Amino acid sequence: EAGVAQSPRYKIIEKRQSVAFWCNPISGHATLYWYQQILGQGPKLLIQFQNNGVVDDSQLPKDRFSAERLKGVDSTLKIQPAKLEDSAVYLCASSQPDRYYGYTFGSGTRLTVV
Amino acid sequence: AQRVTQPEKLLSVFKGAPVELKCNYSYSGSPELFWYVQYSRQRLQLLLRHISRESIKGFTADLNKGETSFHLKKPFAQEEDSAMYYCALSYGGSQGNLIFGKGTKLSVKP
User: Fold this and answer.
1) Which of A18, A9, A38, A39 is nearest to A82 (CA)?
2) Do B51 and A44 touch (CB under 8 A)?
């Protein structure tokens, strides 16, 4: 099966600019996650979707971050305006309804804010 | 609050030596625990799950509820085991998401 696709792989922007990341999960995976991984730390959940509805966005900085999953498939994560501390790898993952199989992660987007 | 602690940032062993990557968790309910691995230039991937009690690539992990630990072990390390290892805790029922530890970098020397 095809994996979780993410784009772009790398992005460099100046602070206060905006940026968007795209994710295409594995076909049939209803649950989609966006994680932020800062250098030297483990991934931290930003938002979880079940189909096109938000299940958990409690750790999403909503003043600058937004995410959507139209039609319950692809998802976009946006940051506007970006801050230096947003520099991180943004990981998308998807899972089957039975999460015991674990998540399948994408390759991530490495964001550098200068 | 739920928390996963991996006390070692770096673990260096020689090929053929035993390996134990430590993971401790904090959770009041029944935890579901996982180990994820990230090899160089590859994506994060599931290594094993505690509920399946399986051995993957020679690695095993036993959930010890009394010590709230889920240590990852391998009796004889191989150079190809060098990678970042993350312990993760799932909570919250059927919609539960994962909390990750900070990870341990395993380096296996020849």
Assistant:
1) A18
2) no
